[in-house]
Structure formats: structure tokens, C-alpha cells
Design brief:
Largest sheet: 8 strands, mixed
Shape: globular
Helix content: 40-55%
Strand content: 5-15%
Order of helices and strands: EHEHEHEHEHHEHHHEEH
CATH class: Alpha Beta
CATH architecture: 3-Layer(aba) Sandwich
Strand order of the largest sheet: 3-2-1-4-5-6-7-8
Number of domains: 1
Number of helices: 10
CATH superfamily: NAD(P)-binding Rossmann-like Domain
Length: 300
């Protein structure tokens, strides 16, 4: 088993992609903290039963798991989540940041409360859990322990190229991709890798927005089954994946794509200050000669 005896926290693990991650890690031999507050898609209400059912499923298959209901975006709650793994099993090897909410709508209608709610769960939630785990791993490394820590963040195609009607979600997911790069650069010396996935699968978030695309087929391979995303996450969480860090992978069905981030696509240097009136031709030539950008989701 590729993750035998590794201790894994999966946030938002009560349903959808997070649930698939938790079950897959357990099948791979990991001990799993199933974190979920059981909120609605809008982030409202509390219900421990989805996480409890995932734990029951893991235990029925002979695995080990515990329920955790802490709010990942609460600083102390995130610390208690990390501590729960340490108290139960005496170690922590992997965090999978998956929890999220939606507040979709066109940008010109967006409210500060909607914006803050999305940023809080996605971006702050990734920060809080990752920060507590990183502090633990750094201390362990400095104490001379062997650390094979793994941070696996959840970005999105919306974060990589934008999505109409999802300004806050796109910005939060883009921020998560950038956070992953910084975590990888800073934590590698302590034995920690950081990678991100941008999954496409059938979840509460996608089955309404992309109903036709997400519909389950009557037969054959179900490319949008959330379980298709989990194998990559399990491998990234294994000790074997120690040489892969700072990467963002798009994953859908049986397809895995290494995503290439922002980088120079053209350059011109006058060697002196430009006059605004002469820039029209220059900028248009730069844009024309550059590789064509991926279109924003939903753009016409």
C-alpha cells in the first residue's frame, strides 16, 4: 500500500471529491482525519453525519479514521484539527485542502459579504490548516526527525483562467495556486512538498452550473466521477512523491495535465522611456505574436 500508516487530513471530506480522497487514502493504507462541518453549498448549517458516514465506510473496510468538525478557516479551529491527528496517531504526514463554498454571480452584482465568504473558506482555510501543519513539520525537522510532509491544495480551472460569474471563486483559486508555489519554495528544506490540483468532477458545486457536462453516462467510463481525481492526490501524498513540488495538475477522468503558470510570452525593449502614442503598434504586435491564451470559462 502506497500510503501505509501515513496520517492524512482531508478537509471538506464529507461529500464529493473530498469524500473520494478520504476513501482512496484509506484504501492505500493511510489513517484519515475526515474533516467536514457538514454545511450547505452556501456554507450554512452544521451536520456531522456526512463525515461520520465516510468514517463508517472506512472502518467497515478495515481502515482507521476519525471525524473532525472544526472550521478550517478559524485559526484556532485549524490548529485543533492538526492537533487531532497528532493526538490520535502521534504524527501528521499529509494535508489535503479541499473544503470550499460558492457565492456565484456576475461581478457587477457581487457584495462584500459574498466575496469575503468565498475568500474565507477557500483561501483563508488553505492558509490556516497549511500554516499549522507547516509549523509542526518545521519543528520536527529541526528536532532531527525525518519529515515527508505533503501539502495538496485544491485550485480550479477557474483559478487558472477565470470563469464568468465566479469572480470571487476564481480569485480565491488563483490565490491558492500562487500559495502553493510559495509553500513549495519555502518548505522544501524541511522535507515538505506542496502541489495543487485543479479537478473537474461531479460535485455539489459543478452539477448545477455544468449540468449537461456533469451528467453521469448510462454506461461506460464515467469521466466526471469524483473518484477519478483521488489516485493522483494519493500518489502526491505518498513518500514516493518527494521529488515533485510546486506543481499544479489539472485532472479530469483519466486525464492529467501539468499546468504551466504565468511566464513571459513576449518582450520588447526600447532602451528608453516610451511615448504613449507609439505603444499601440508595439503592444498589438506583442499580443499577436504571443501564444493564444486559454479562454475564460463561459466567455463568448
Amino acid at each position: 500500500m502506497i500510503c501505509r500508516d501515513r496520517v492524512v487530513i482531508v478537509t471538506g471530506a464529507g461529500r464529493g471529491i473530498g469524500r473520494a480522497h478520504a476513501l482512496a487514502f484509506a484504501r492505500a493504507g493511510a489513517r484519515v482525519v475526515v474533516n467536514d462541518i457538514g454545511a450547505s453549498l452556501a456554507g450554512e448549517g452544521l451536520d456531522s453525519s456526512p463525515a461520520a458516514q465516510v468514517v463508517a465506510d472506512i472502518e467497515a473496510a478495515g481502515g482507521e479514521a476519525i471525524v473532525d468538525g472544526h472550521d478550517v478557516a478559524d485559526w484556532d479551529g485549524a490548529g485543533a484539527l492538526v492537533q487531532a491527528a497528532l493526538d490520535r496517531w502521534g504524527r501528521l504526514d499529509v494535508i489535503v485542502n479541499n473544503a470550499g463554498v460558492l457565492r456565484d454571480g456576475m461581478f457587477f452584482k457581487a457584495t462584500p459579504d459574498q466575496w469575503d465568504a468565498v475568500m474565507r473558506v477557500h483561501l483563508r482555510g488553505h492558509f490556516c490548516v497549511g500554516r499549522h501543519a507547516a509549523a509542526h513539520w518545521r519543528a520536527a525537522s529541526k528536532a532531527g526527525d525525518e519529515v515527508t510532509g505533503r501539502i495538496i491544495n485544491t485550485s480550479s480551472g477557474a483559478g487558472l483562467q477565470g470563469s464568468v460569474g465566479q469572480a470571487a471563486y476564481s480569485c480565491a483559486k488563483g490565490g491558492i495556486a500562487a500559495l502553493t508555489l510559495v509553500q513549495a519554495a519555502e518548505l522544501g528544506r524541511y522535507g515538505v512538498t506542496a502541489n495543487a490540483i485543479a479537478p473537474a468532477a461531479r460535485t455539489r458545486m459543478t452539477e448545477q452550473v455544468f449540468a449537461d457536462m456533469m451528467a453521469a453516462p448510462e454506461g461506460g467510463f464515467d469521466a466526471m466521477d469524483p473518484a477519478n481525481v483521488a489516485p493522483l492526490v494519493v500518489w502526491l501524498g505518498s513518500a514516493e512523491a518527494g521529488d515533485i513540488s510546486g506543481k499544479v495538475f489539472e485532472v479530469q477522468g483519466g486525464q492529467i495535465i501539468l499546468s504551466d503558470g504565468w511566464r513571459p510570452a513576449g518582450q520588447v525593449d526600447k532602451g528608453a522611456r516610451w511615448d504613449p502614442a507609439e505603444l499601440g503598434e508595439v503592444i498589438r504586435r506583442l499580443v499577436s505574436d504571443a501564444p493564444q491564451a486559454m479562454p475564460v470559462y463561459g466567455a463568448r
